[in-house]
Amino acid sequence: MAEQTERSFQKQLGVNGGFKLKDKKAPGKSGHRFYRNVGLGFKTPKEAVEGTYIDKKCPFTGDVSIRGRILTGIVHSCKMNRTITVRRDYLHYIKKYARYEKRHTNISAHLSPAFRTKEGDTVVIGQCR
Question: Which one of 9, 66, 74, 86 counts the least CB within 10 Å of its CB?
Fold first, then answer.
């Protein structure tokens, strides 16, 4: 069974915990576990396949689909629970002076327990609904 760290009982959608198949081998070490390939050239992490975490917002084990923009940035903060702040630096053109100025934006992104990040790491984040 998965680690229960939240106040409410967490379970994966579409996976029946009490149902056992005797002749078919279950995926992963922890029994019946739902995981998928999100596409876009990203491989499913080993922790998502064999892990015991339950995260409904994880693109590999939850019901979130990645679509839209794929962004790259540097991890600025890891202080929130399963959330990181990503800093994106860019240049903005000033027409009057024909020069660029540096700007940045901070984006909050969900961090699946399948990944281990620290401040200063370069990450790729995908847009979802």
Answer: 9
